[in-house]
Amino acid sequence: MLITTERLTLHAWSESFFDDLFELAQVPETVRYVGTGEPWSREYTLVKHRATLEHWAEHGFGWFAVSAAPGSFDGVVSLVRRNATESGLGMPAVEMGWWIAKPVWGRGYATEATTAIRDHVFASGFTDRLLAVYEPANSASARVVEKLGFTPHSKFTLDGRVEQRAVLHRPR
Fold it and tell me: How confident is the model at residue 139 (pLDDT cuts 50, 70, 90)?
């Protein structure tokens, strides 16, 4: 599956993206607001990679690789189905996250890619509700959340870090 925007191509996740994901997960500035904030080990990256391949097989959607040029790997937009407990909302949702490669920061790719994925998910009927979880200190992600129309829901602490949940409901 491919989704295209004016400047980007979003590719359904496949085996071929593992090395790119591992390389992206080694950049401290990319991972500082994810999980422990530390670069991912090869083993942990493989676990995440396999989980998203399984998610695609089970749900028909999941992570997308972001490409600004043929053959480039410029980031990831992730979609993961969460049950009512996992979402922290008391209702199921699809969690959306994103990483954009540092060399292409500041070009609006995160907003462009997530907007296309948001629209695809809602148009396809995969969910009525998107969830974004981010650290308020991550001002770039906070701006993307705002631009996409998410509404702040609740704050919580995870591993000593303050996280913000935000929700976006499918337009009626």
Answer: very high
